[in-house]
């Protein structure tokens, strides 16, 4: 069994991003990323800190806007509109999930689609379905495709099962796997937590993408011999043996599945680091397109 090292692939992507930033600098352009956090969810705060830190390290103009948990829809919309009009900002994202009073779909729709580096705006969803390369693809599924490529996994003609149907991962993942060309051309099945006979479906797959958001949801009985498993889940569970009392696990029972699969991503250190790497790459793409 081969473990797919997401941290190493993310470093490779960052190196490519650095080179594109240098090419922009030679034209007197600095790409700008704005990350908006509403509220004080500790995990969201940590992800936003990582994005801001990485962006600054790579040479972006990085803006972090932290708003209180009581922020109203109108106040958040005003921030988004301001960033839409800021010429120093090429990429905007609002960290998900926002607090309950926020209508997230309306906020996503308010972001200029040319700056929507999360790829959540309906214009970018449509561009993905239309296979238009000027669109932005959500960072996590884009990272999964890159991990498959770097692990030497050919998706063309392969039987791939995506478990999960979210707008952030499952749906775009299925579209990416089925699109024409590199990283695509797969035969794709989308299953989810309510699918009947899930194990019978996933056991047929040469590639399994687990994105259900439930700890250890897929066990050995779900995975066929020699399959490649990409675990998108990041679930914090209690663990009295760890110093913090908790630990991160994926949607896949790693120890049970590792014995029979050909390759698998760990959690942490698999898909997670790729999410931030692809965000940086998307932001450079936005800057390149906006300054053509
Ligand atoms: N606006 C967005 N919100 C959210 C997204 C997103 O793509 N856009 N994705 C997730 C959270 N996320 C980025 O925002 C993210 C999650 C996990 C990681 C990561 O590197 N995880 C590490 C473990 C980190 C830890 O120890 O806690 C790993 O898996 O190795 C990066 C980014 C939801 N919200």
Automatic annotation (TrEMBL):
The keyword Hydrolase applies. Residues 138-289 form the Tetrahydrofolate dehydrogenase/cyclohydrolase NAD(P)-binding domain. It catalyses: (6R)-5,10-methenyltetrahydrofolate + H2O = (6R)-10-formyltetrahydrofolate + H(+); (6R)-5,10-methylene-5,6,7,8-tetrahydrofolate + NADP(+) = (6R)-5,10-methenyltetrahydrofolate + NADPH. Gene3D superfamilies: Leucine Dehydrogenase, chain A, domain 1, NAD(P)-binding Rossmann-like Domain. InterPro entries: Aminoacid_DH-like_N_sf, NAD(P)-bd_dom_sf, THF_DH/CycHdrlase, THF_DH/CycHdrlase_cat_dom, THF_DH/CycHdrlase_CS, THF_DH/CycHdrlase_NAD-bd_dom. One of its GO terms (biological process) is tetrahydrofolate interconversion. CDD domains: NAD_bind_m-THF_DH_Cyclohyd. Keywords: Amino-acid biosynthesis, Histidine biosynthesis, Hydrolase, Methionine biosynthesis, Multifunctional enzyme, NADP, One-carbon metabolism, Oxidoreductase, Purine biosynthesis. Residues 4-118 form the Tetrahydrofolate dehydrogenase/cyclohydrolase catalytic domain. Pathway: One-carbon metabolism; tetrahydrofolate interconversion. GO terms for cellular component: cytosol. Catalyzes the oxidation of 5,10-methylenetetrahydrofolate to 5,10-methenyltetrahydrofolate and then the hydrolysis of 5,10-methenyltetrahydrofolate to 10-formyltetrahydrofolate. Homodimer. Belongs to the tetrahydrofolate dehydrogenase/cyclohydrolase family. NCBIfam families: PRK14186.1. This is Bifunctional protein FolD. It comes from Terrimicrobium sacchariphilum.
